[in-house]
Structure formats: structure tokens, C-alpha cells
Design a protein that fits this description.
Blueprint: H1 4-26, E1 31-33, E2 41-42, E3 45-46, H2 56-62, H3 64-69, H4 74-87, E4 91-95, E5 98-106, E6 109-115, E7 126-127, E8 132-139, E9 144-149
Antiparallel strand pairs: 1-4, 2-3, 4-5, 5-6, 6-9, 7-8, 8-9
Helix pairs in contact: 1-4, 2-4
Amino acid sequence: MIGTGEHIHFLLNKSNLQTIDTLSQEANVYEMSDMRRQHKVLNDQLISNDDKDKTEKEIATAYAGTIMADNLDTGKVAKLRTKLDRSGIVHMAREDGYLVLTMGGFLDNEFGYLKAPNDDIEVGYMIPPYGLTVVSLTELHDGWYFYYTT
């Protein structure tokens, strides 16, 4: 069951979450961390966990290899990073039609928002990117869910 705080957070951030969904597809970004709390990740590139690389120029420098290899638009990557930060999302992963937006927790015990292909999600399913098992799931609005894993 979702708490009142999480539901209010969703309502206040619904527009940002939808922008993250759309922009990550347009930008061809399938994985990104908030570049602060967790190790910095952009698609397949993992670098340090320093608290920098916030501006478009800093992101372009830190992720030059991935940006060039994946032909990414640095402006879109920077905008996506800002949207994640403003929404309190520490990690975004897109895989097999699922969009998983982690708000917190640890590697084996996370919570956040989830968008599933054709609403194909239920308690007991394993979600990408780590195959964690959903132990609690609340339907929100327009295909969005709030999840807890273990």
C-alpha cells in the first residue's frame, strides 16, 4: 500500500516522470543514475561517485566515450539528469519495455515508480535492471505504479 507522501510526490512530479519517460527514449538513454548518490552511470559507462558532473559541459567531459559511441545529444542527457534530480529519482533504467525509476533503498530493497509494457506487472514479478522481486505494487495513473522490491 502506498503512503500519502508517495502519492502526493507522484501527483506533484507526474509531469516530470512523463518527461523522463519520453526524453529518455528520444535521447536513447536506457540507464542513468542521479550522478550523486549512486555510482554515476550513463548507458553502459560507469565512472566514479563524485558529486560533480552536473552541467552539460561536465557531463560531456565525464561521459565522452558513451556520448560518442551511442551518438547521444549532450543537451538531452543534461536535461534528463536535471529531471531525475528534480523528481528525487536516484536511478533510471529502461529495459524490455519497463521503465524503472528508483527513489531509494539498497540494491536488494528498493522503491520507486514503474511503468510496465501493457500494464504487464504484478507482485512477484522480477523487474529490470537487477531482477529484483516486486513485493508491493500500487497502481497510480496512466500506467504508472509505485513499487517496493526485496
